[in-house]
Amino acid sequence: AKVLDASTLSFGTRVRWFAICFVAGIVCSILGTALLWLPKGIKPFAVFYTLGNLAALASTCFLMGPLKQLKAMFEPKRLVATIVMLLFMVLTLCAVFWWNKRGLAMLFCILQSLAMTWYSLSYIPFARDAVIKCFTSCL
């Protein structure tokens, strides 16, 4: 149980590893974006971009603990967002490695980013409602 519960780590250690994972996620995403402009750079882009999102997602495990994080991810208010986010991560990798569809991979990366944003907004009280209200008032 101690291995699965990050609360056995000191607060400073948890914050440090959160920051390391979060920065690693940002670096992977930026590196992936830079690799996109190389010839045949779509595969490294998709891999690094997806790894970046996974690292950013994993970073919160250090703050909350892995079990608490998983429980929070699959709460009813986040269930659809979590499934969609993970689905687009898998589809992004499928598009570049199995289907060899560059445009589809780009579309899935964009949708992955939007799904990750929608998922993240679920942790901020009333943030989703504010975004929906903003978009409906703009339309």
UniProtKB/TrEMBL annotation:
Localization of this protein: Membrane
Record family assignment: Belongs to the SFT2 family.
Function: May be involved in fusion of retrograde transport vesicles derived from an endocytic compartment with the Golgi complex.
Protein known as: Vesicle transport protein
Gene (UniProt): Sft2d1
GO BP annotations listed: protein transport; vesicle-mediated transport
Membrane topology listed for this record: Multi-pass membrane protein
A Pfam match: Got1
Record's GO cellular component terms: cytoplasm; endomembrane system; membrane
Alphabetic keyword roster: Membrane, Protein transport, Transmembrane, Transmembrane helix, Transport
Keyword check for DNA damage: no
Transmembrane stretches, start-end: 17-39, 45-67, 79-99, 105-126
Organism in which the protein naturally occurs: Upupa epops (Eurasian hoopoe)
